Amino acid sequence: MSIKVEDYYAPDTFKRMKAFADTQETPFVVIDTQMIAQAYDDLRAGFEFAKVYYAVKANPAVEIIDLLRDKGSNFDIASIYELDKVMGQGVTPDRISYGNTIKKARDVRYFYEKGVRLYATDSEADLRNIAKAAPGSKVYVRILTDGSTSADWPLSRKFGCNPDMALDLLILAKQLGLVPYGVSFHVGSQQRDIDVWDSAIAKVKVIFDRLKTEDGITLQMINMGGGFPANYIQRTNSLETYAQEIIRFLKEDFGDDLPEIILEPGRSLIANAGVLVSEVVLVARKSRTSVERWVYTDVGKFSGLIETTDESIKFPVWTEKKGEDEEVVIAGPTCDSADIMYENYKYGLPLNLASGDRLYWFSTGAYTTSYSAVEFNGFPPLKSFYL
Question: Of 97, 263, 336, 337, which has the fewest beta carbons less than 10 angstroms from its beta carbon?
Answer without folding.
Answer: 337
